[in-house]
């Protein structure tokens, strides 16, 4: 895997992967940016959520459960001291499905968090406390 980062202006950065997909980063004005894109730390949380999201949907599909919608709400706490790493992350999975049962969703989340999601594993192996919650609508 290879990515390239290029400075656009001030603190705005364009990330580019080998397939040509672009990701933009920025920071708030107080830190020299223009607040035009997500911060790197915000994108880390989004990447963790997206990784688990794909696992959960894939697992539910394999169980032949209908996924009408899935949302993951993520709340995180960072250390007060530098480097300000994430110390606690809570993922709330909200599934809309006419036929999935709570045990299906909970098992999909468990498999994602313990077996498949490399992004989640990185958070956990760094000492971050990762917790989950499941809701079905």
Describe the structure.
- There is one protein chain.
- The chain is globular.
- The termini are far apart.
- The protein has a three-stranded antiparallel β-sheet with strand order 1-2-3, with no helix packed on it. Strands 4-5-6 form a three-stranded mixed β-sheet, with helices on one face.
- By secondary structure, the protein is an alpha+beta fold.
- The chain is built from three helices and six strands.
- Helix 1 (40-62) crosses helix 3.
- It folds into two domains: 1-37; 40-136, GMP Synthetase, Chain A, domain 3.
Q: What is the CATH topology classification name of the largest domain?
A: GMP Synthetase, Chain A, domain 3
How many separate domains? 2
Structural class: alpha+beta
Assign the CATH superfamily of the largest domain.
K homology (KH) domain
Instruction: Report helical residue fraction.
Output: 25-40%
Q: Give me the count of strands.
A: 6
Taking all Cα atoms into account, the compactness measure Rg is 17 Å
Report the mean per-residue pLDDT as an integer: 97
Biggest sheet statistics: 3 strands, antiparallel
The CATH class designation of the largest domain is: Alpha Beta
What order do the helices and strands follow? EEEHEEHHE
Number of helices: 3
Strand content: 25-35%
Shape: globular
Distance between the termini: 38 Å
The appropriate CATH architecture of the largest domain is 2-Layer Sandwich
What low-confidence regions span 5 or more consecutive residues with pLDDT below 50? Answer: none
Order of strands, main sheet, comes to 1-2-3
Please outline the helices and strands.
Layout: E1 3-9, E2 12-17, E3 22-25, H1 40-62, E4 69-78, E5 86-96, H2 102-116, H3 118-125, E6 129-136
Parallel strand pairs: 5-6
Antiparallel strand pairs: 1-2, 2-3, 4-5
Helix pairs in contact: 1-2, 1-3
């Amino acid at each position: 895997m290879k990515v390239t980062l290029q400075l656009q202006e001030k603190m705005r950065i364009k990330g580019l992967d080998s397939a040509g997909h672009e990701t933009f980063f920025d920071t708030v004005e107080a830190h020299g940016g223009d607040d035009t894109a997500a911060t790197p730390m915000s994108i880390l949380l989004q990447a963790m959520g997206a990784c688990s999201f794909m696992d959960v949907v894939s697992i539910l599909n394999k169980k032949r459960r209908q996924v009408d919608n899935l949302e993951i709400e993520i709340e995180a706490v960072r250390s007060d001291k530098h480097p300000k790493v994430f110390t606690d992350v809570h993922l709330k999975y909200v599934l809309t499905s006419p036929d999935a049962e709570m045990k299906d969703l909970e098992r999909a989340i468990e498999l994602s968090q313990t077996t498949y999601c490399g992004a989640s594993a990185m958070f956990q192996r760094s000492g971050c406390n990762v917790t989950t919650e499941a809701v079905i609508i």
